[in-house]
Amino acid sequence: MNDQHDPTPEPAHEEELFVTFANESRLSTPQAPDDTADLDRLERWLAASGLPVRAQPRRLREALPAFRDLRGLVREIARRADRDERPTRAQVAALNRVMRDGLHYHVLRATDDGAQFDMSQVGDDLDQARSAIAGSLAHYLAEHDLDRLGVCASETCSWLFVDRSPGGRRRWCDMGTCGNRAKVARHRARKSTVSPVPRSAAAG
Fold it and tell me: Is the pLDDT of residue 7 over 60?
């Protein structure tokens, strides 16, 4: 997959959390995992996205397969949307499970010396991060047109995007990169199909 994208893709707006997770976390597939690289990518993406990253390295490694599975689920749902197909019941159930895993609550506890109280959050930070990503996709599905969720038409890309253009005919994740490359490729293809004028005809 070609990952050379414009750092400020169009249109200029804050992208959906599930879109940036699918595109920018760059986790490898469960079939060919690369734990060392993926752990670094995931930790950096979580930090950049403002999601909790207080977990110990061992816990992050344990949670990695669940993040890979979630990324696969997001991409599968997006591919179906790109074909104007609704998510399957199994996909909706899987999304709901991830959101349920991230449930948390607060408890009132006395401090060690018993002199005062404080509020503590109960729940796993990484489960809550996955829940936030799943919730972003769930809110999108509930509140927006499904056919506006697309997958870049470039054979070397496949990034997700939300089509906010007036006509709803966007095909590329970013016109400045993938769209421009496609235009150049079409232009070259047209030029290669034009038969050259024979020299004798040109001279006459």
Answer: no
* CATH homologous superfamily for the domain 17-195: Jann2411-like domain (1.10.3300.10)
Q: Are 44 and 50 in contact (CB under 8 A)?
A: no
Q: Following DSSP, what letter does each residue of 23-69 receive, concatenated? A: HHS-PPPTTS--HHHHHHHHHHHHHHTT----S-HHHHHHHHHHHHH
Q: What pLDDT does residue 8 have?
A: 47
Q: What is the Cα–Cα distance from 8 to 13, expressed in whole angstroms?
A: 9
The answer to whether 175 touches 156, Cβ cutoff 8 Å, is no
Q: Is the pTM of this model over 0.85?
A: no
Tell me which residue of 163, 109, 154, 127 sits closest to 52, measured CA to CA: 127
The closest alpha carbon to 165, from 174, 178, 155, belongs to: 174
Q: How far apart are CA 58 and CA 172, in angstroms?
A: 38
Domain ranges of the chain: 17-195
What single DSSP character describes residue 105? E
